[in-house]
Write a structure and sequence with these properties.
With 189 residues, the chain is an alpha+beta fold. The chain is built from six helices and seven strands, in the order βααααβββαβαββ. A hairpin with a 6-residue loop joins strand 6 and strand 7.
């Protein structure tokens, strides 16, 4: 599958990432991860030395393969992003990353990106969607659960840490089935 399949998003502001987005996507990833994970991991070396906006931006800019299956929420400012794996398992899409710039959180951007992901998965014939989330990241878990995601019982250690990841799965691949009811998408015609 190529990103051409997703070229016409049902959501006005969601589109595939391109090289011009590299800097903004890197900022979002680094700053959102610092905000979410520093209180959990308490590792300033990783948060402020290993995680580099410049290095990540250059990687995205120079390696188009990294841009594949990455989508941004762009209303004139890139405010959030998702990274997906539409080939995770037969008829199962996987949400690899969903991050919103901390300055723009709690404005419905994450809900729009999640709804679009669920809608794209359904339109592609996916019967199930999955993601890994840190067990200690209760805010993210509540967000996913609000869309009907549930822990599958699978659990693994985050490499190099004492923190566990939980596999969440959902059989609903429609944005209009979320409990939030903020977005409603029908099948493409």
């Amino acid at each position: 599958m190529t990103t051409d399949f997703y070229a016409s998003s049902k959501v006005k502001y969601i589109r595939p990432m391109n090289s011009c987005d590299a800097s903004r996507v890197a900022e979002i990833l680094i700053f959102a991860k610092r905000a979410a994970y520093r209180p959990i991991f308490r590792d300033d070396y990783v948060s402020f030395q290993k995680m580099s906006v410049l290095d990540l931006a250059l990687s995205y800019r120079d390696n188009q393969d990294l841009q594949k299956d990455v989508f941004v929420y762009d209303d004139g400012i890139v405010r959030g992003m998702i990274s997906i794996d539409p080939n995770f398992a037969p008829r199962e899409w996987h949400l690899k990353e969903l991050y919103i710039d901390p300055f723009f959180q709690h404005q419905g951007i994450g809900s729009a990106l999640m709804s679009e992901f669920l809608s794209m998965a359904a339109d592609a014939g996916s019967r199930q969607v999955s993601l890994w989330v840190l067990e200690a990241n209760t805010a993210a878990r509540r967000f996913y659960e609000s869309f009907g995601w549930l822990p599958s019982g699978e659990r693994k250690l985050e490499p190099g840490t004492d923190q566990f990841l939980l596999m969440y799965r959902s059989g609903q691949c429609r944005g209009n089935e979320s409990k939030k009811g903020e977005h409603s998408y029908g099948k493409s015609t």
